[in-house]
Amino acid sequence: MSPIRDHTRVLDDISQERLPHETNLLPGILNRIEKGSPPMKSATQLRRVALPLALILLFVLFALPATVSALKQFFGYIPGVGPVDATAPLRVLAEPVSGSRDGFAITVESALLDSAQTVIQYRIAGPFPARGEQGPNANLCQEYPGLRLANGATLNITRAESGDDASGIHTKVVFPALPAGQNQGTLVLPCVTGQLLGENPRNWEIPLRFAPAPPDLPVYPVQDLSTPLPAGKTPGADPFNLELEQMAEIPDGYYLKARLRWTSVPAFYGVDLFPDAVRVLDSAGQSVPIGDMTSESADGQSLSVALKIGAPANPGPLRVVVDYVALQIPPEGKLSLDVGKNPRPGQTWEVNQDVIARGYTLRVLSAEYVQEAPTAPVMLMLHLQAKPEVLLAGFADDETATSRPGGGAPNSPQAKFRSAILYEQFPKGKLNLTLSSLSVRRDGPWAVSWTPPGVDPSTPPRQIATPVTDSRAGFTLTVKSARLEASGSIVTYAIRSPYPFDARPGMATDACLQITKLRLASGREKISYNREGVGDDDEMEYTETFPPLPPTETPISLVISCVSGTKIQQGPQNWEIPLRFVAALPSTPTPLPSPTPTLPPGKACLSRAAMETALNSPPLPLPAGLGGQIAFWNANSATGAMFISKLDGSAPASLGAGLFPGLSPDGKQVVYRGPDNGLHVRSLPAGTDFLIPDTALPKVYNNLPVWSPDGKQIAFSRFAGDDSDVYIVHADGSNLDPVAIGPEQQSFLGWAADSRSIFFSVYAAGIHHIFWQELQTGQKREILVLPPGTTLFSLSPDGKRLVYGNDQGLFLTGTAHFAPTLLLGGALKLGGPLLWSPDGQWLALSYAGDADNPRQARLALLQPDTCQFILLQTPAGSISSWSP
Amino acid sequence: MFMDDLQAIRRLKSGDVGGLEILVTRYQRKAVQTAFLITHDEQLADEVVQETFVRLYQHIRHFDEARPLAPYLLRSVANAALNAAKKTRRWVQIGAGSDTDAETVAELLTEATGVEDQAEYNGLRERIFKAMQSLSPRQRAVIVQRYYLGMSEKEMAENASVAPGTIKWLLNSARENLRNLLHPERSPE
Question: N or C: which terminus of chain B carries fewer CB neighbours within 10 A?
Answer without folding.
Answer: C
